[in-house]
Amino acid sequence: MTRVIHTGDTHIGYAQYHSPVRRQDFLEAFDAVVDDAIDDDVDAVVHAGDLFHDRRPALSDLMGTIRVLRRLADAAIPFLAVVGNHEAARGGQWLDLFERLELATRLGDEPVTVDDTAFYGLDHVPVSRRDELGYDFVSHDASYAALVAHGLFEPFAHADWDTETVLEESDVDFDAVLLGDNHTPGRAEVADTWVTYPGSTERASASERDGRGYNLVRFDEAAAAGDDRVEIRRRALETRPFVFVEVDLDASEGEPAVRERVRQHDVTDAVVLVEVTGDGDPITPAAVEAFATDRGALIARVSDRRTVETDESVDVHFADPESAVRERVESMGLSAAALDVDDAVRSPAVADSNVRETVKARVTDRLEDPSAFVTAEETEPTEDDRDTAGVDDESDTAGVDDRRDANDADGPTETTPADGQVSMEDYL
Predict the structure, then answer these.
(1) N or C: which end of the chain has fewer CB within 10 A?
(2) Looking at the domain 2-236, which fold is it?
(3) Do 363 and 405 meet the contact criterion of CB atoms below 8 Å apart?
(4) 47 carries an active-site annotation
(5) How far, in Å, CA of 386 to CA of 367, rounded?
(6) Would you say the C-alpha torsion 112, 115, 118, 119 has a positive or negative sign?
(7) Do residues 170 and 139 make contact, with C-beta atoms less than 8 angstroms apart?
(8) Backbone angles phi, psi at 390, to 5 degrees
């Protein structure tokens, strides 16, 4: 029998809401997982990618992570992991450094056997490069086998990776597929194999309302009722409280009603997210946020989803700034690829933690079509055109390039510009 903790998407280093306290929260959530691993004396901790939020973590985040991993190593509990899209780097992976420090094992196509279970790894791979994958794994002689991978796999939300294809084309028959990337926990059976996400260990987006946690996975013939060889149990983690306050104002109500609704909640040390709808009077978001922080909230954010009329002839919508930006972007004559980037960065449907992955996926998918990178003008401007174009044109182009680089998520490819990218050795 083998018992492991399956976790992932710890996103260490994420200063959510630009808060250093929230940054520390992500490290502490990972620390809490390790606490449980040591207390329960599990056979291994399996991490399914995105240990870090960024491929260039701050020194404090690296040192904190090493401290946590060293506690795990001192307890003789292996840390097995794959590389996620957020942390993938060109010149080397931080996971490789931790392996050289004997604090981790990077999983790959060769089995890493813990007790009677063989573990394999599949790092995140961009959609455009998955056709090259052969899913060739070295055989094993253990009783069970598990694949640890990072990506959006079917049949879960936002899937772009065919799980059945992976299982059918693999040289190894897997008893379980332990996944990372989707921050929502889930479990399904695909081709007689259990496939599961543990979810993220901290809330990386306001859309992640449910509690955080991880999976405890047991490989055993008698693991559960029936003939199942794998038992998957979800365990909760105590993390920073998020308080979601939804206020639907009647026509006669205004800011006092919003404050009263906030007052009804315990907001001490919490992240407070207030959403206002309805027909009531205009409110001042900053005033409500100050009210919540005065009552002890760590962070407060107010979103007013309503249309506000300022006079009889003009309707001012909170979406108007977005509309103005959209009109400006459309008038710039950007390429199709650049428009894809702009849409991903500003789309409310894309969570903050998924922007990088979405941008990279969209740009990568366009690489086979050179015309997608051509601007609306059919020819390059002449030197005279450049002289008369003014600084604004250059700054507009630079803004798009900077945004694309800042949101590169799937990790560098051969087409990724070298600007702004350094290897791990250069970083150190």
Answers:
(1) C
(2) Purple Acid Phosphatase; chain A, domain 2 (3.60.21)
(3) no
(4) no
(5) 27
(6) negative
(7) no
(8) 90, 170
- Is the separation of the CB atoms in 109 and 125 below 8 Å? no
Give residue-wise pLDDT tens across range 258-273. Answer: 999 999 999 999 999 9
Question: Tokens 């059919």 map to which residue?
Answer: 378
Domain extents for the chain?
2-236, 242-297, 330-427
Match 């502490």 to its residue by tokens: 28
pLDDT higher than 90, residue 174: yes
Burial of 147 (0-12, 13-18, 19+ CB in 10 A): buried
Task: Determine whether 300 is exposed, middle or buried from the number of CB atoms within 10 Å of its CB (0-12, 13-18, 19+).
Answer: buried
Q: What is the pTM of this model?
A: 0.72
Can you read off the two tokens belonging to residue 333?
Answer: 């004559």
Options 6, 86, 150, 183, the catalytic residue: 86
- Burial code of 162-195, b = ≥16 C-beta within 10 A, e = fewer? ebeebbeebebebbbbbbbbbbebbeeebeebbb
